[in-house]
C-alpha cells in the first residue's frame, strides 16, 4: 500500500492503526509525512472585506435561486 | 427556450482530515469530473489525484509577495475556462468550500450568470472539528465568528457572553494582502481592541485541526495579553470563551 493509501485508510477506518503497518509501510509513511511538513502549502485565504475581487465593497444579496448560498 | 450550455460546475469540500471527512457524494463528483481543480493541504491534494488523475492544483497560482486578489482572479479564470469549454468541472476546496473562502462562491455565481449549472456541496469545516475536539456547543452561550482583520478594519459588535471564534488570526491586521503572517504590531492592535471587552488575563486558545489522522489537534491555552507574540500559523483559529454571564432581560 502506498503512503497516501495508508493515510486514506487511517482516516476512513476507525480500527486502522499505525502499529499494524509493516516496517516498509511504516517507513514509507514517515517519509511521506516528513515531506509534507517541508512543503508550505498556501491554503486559500478569505479577505476581510466582503467584496469579490472584482466587485465594489457591498454585502452580497440573497439570490432568488434556492441553491445559491453565496 | 434556449438550452443550458453544456459545461457544469460543482464546488465541493473533502473536509479537514484526509480520508476521514469526505462524503460519498463529494467523492462521486470528484471521480466523475472531467477536471478537478484543488486548493487543499498538499497531502489531501495528492490523495485527491488518486481519485481522479485529471486533478490540477491551484497552489501554483500563489506566490510570495503576489497580491492575493490576483491569485483569486486567476483561480476564477482557470475554473471558468474549463466550464466554458463544456467540461464537467469540480472545484475542491479544503474543509467546507463555502466557509471563509470567496473563490468558490464567486465562481459559482459567474457560472450561473453565464447560464451554466453550478452549485456547492457542503463539507466538514475547521469549525465542525473545533466543536468536536474542544467540546464546545455553540448553542450553549452563542458563538460569534469573525475574520480576525475585520475587527481591526470595521466596527463590529462583540458579545463577551458568547464564544468568539477568530479566523485567520495569524493574518490579523495585514493590509498588504501579500503576506502569510502579520506582524506583532498588527496583532497588538487587535489585542487592544479585544481588551475593551475582555480582561488581559482572559484565557484564549489557539486551535489547529490536523490534516492527517496520525496527528493530534493543537489546542493551547494562553492569556489574551500574549496573543501578539504567540506562535500562530496560517491555519490557526483563535477561540475566546465567554468572559461575562448572559444578562437576564
Ligand atoms: C480561508 S479559511 C478556510 C476555511 C475552510 N474552508 C474550512 O472549511 O474550515 C482559513 C482559515 O480557516 C481556519 N482553518 C483552516 N485550517 C484549519 C485547521 N487545520 N485548524 C483550525 N483552523 C483552520 C483558520 O482560521 C484559517 O486561517
Automatic annotation (TrEMBL), chain A:
Residues 47-70 have a biased composition (Acidic residues). Residues 45-70 are annotated as: Disordered. This is Uncharacterized protein.
TrEMBL record, chain B:
Residues 9-208 form the Tetrapyrrole methylase domain. GO terms for molecular function: methyltransferase activity. It comes from the Bacteria. Pfam families: TP_methylase. SUPFAM superfamilies: Tetrapyrrole methylase. This is Tetrapyrrole methylase domain-containing protein.
Amino acid at each position: 500500500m502506498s503512503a497516501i493509501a495508508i493515510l486514506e485508510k487511517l482516516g476512513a477506518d476507525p480500527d486502522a492503526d499505525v502499529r499494524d503497518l509493516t516496517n516498509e509501510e511504516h517507513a514509507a509513511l514517515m517519509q511521506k509525512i516528513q515531506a509534507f511538513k517541508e512543503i508550505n502549502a498556501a491554503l486559500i485565504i478569505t479577505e476581510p472585506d466582503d467584496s469579490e475581487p472584482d466587485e465594489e465593497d457591498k454585502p452580497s444579496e440573497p439570490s432568488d435561486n434556492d441553491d445559491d448560498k453565496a | 427556450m434556449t438550452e443550458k450550455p453544456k459545461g457544469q460546475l460543482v464546488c465541493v469540500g473533502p473536509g479537514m482530515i484526509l480520508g476521514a471527512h469526505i462524503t460519498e457524494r463529494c467523492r462521486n463528483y470528484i471521480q466523475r469530473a472531467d477536471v478537478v481543480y484543488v486548493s487543499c493541504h498538499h497531502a489531501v491534494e495528492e490523495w485527491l489525484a488518486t481519485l481522479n488523475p485529471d486533478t490540477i492544483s491551484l497552489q501554483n497560482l500563489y506566490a510570495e509577495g503576489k497580491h492575493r486578489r490576483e491569485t483569486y482572479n486567476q483561480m476564477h479564470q482557470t475554473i471558468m475556462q474549463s466550464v466554458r469549454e463544456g467540461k464537467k468541472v469540480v472545484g475542491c476546496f479544503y474543509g467546507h468550500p463555502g466557509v471563509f473562502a470567496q473563490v468558490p462562491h464567486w465562481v459559482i455565481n459567474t457560472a450561473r450568470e453565464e447560464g451554466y449549472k453550478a452549485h456547492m456541496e457542503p463539507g466538514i469545516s475547521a469549525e465542525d472539528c473545533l466543536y468536536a475536539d474542544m467540546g464546545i456547543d455553540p448553542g450553549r452561550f452563542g458563538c460569534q465568528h469573525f475574520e480576525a482583520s475585520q475587527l481591526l478594519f470595521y466596527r463590529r459588535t462583540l458579545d463577551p457572553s458568547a464564544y468568539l471564534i477568530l479566523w485567520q488570526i495569524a493574518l490579523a491586521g495585514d493590509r498588504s494582502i501579500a503576506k502569510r503572517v502579520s506582524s506583532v504590531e498588527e496583532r497588538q492592535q487587535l489585542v487592544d481592541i479585544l481588551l475593551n471587552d475582555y480582561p488581559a488575563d482572559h484565557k484564549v486558545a489557539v486551535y489547529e485541526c490536523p490534516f492527517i489522522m496520525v496527528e493530534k489537534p493543537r489546542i493551547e491555552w494562553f492569556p489574551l495579553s500574549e496573543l501578539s507574540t504567540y506562535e500562530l500559523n496560517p491555519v490557526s483559529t483563535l477561540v475566546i470563551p465567554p468572559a461575562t454571564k448572559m444578562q437576564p432581560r
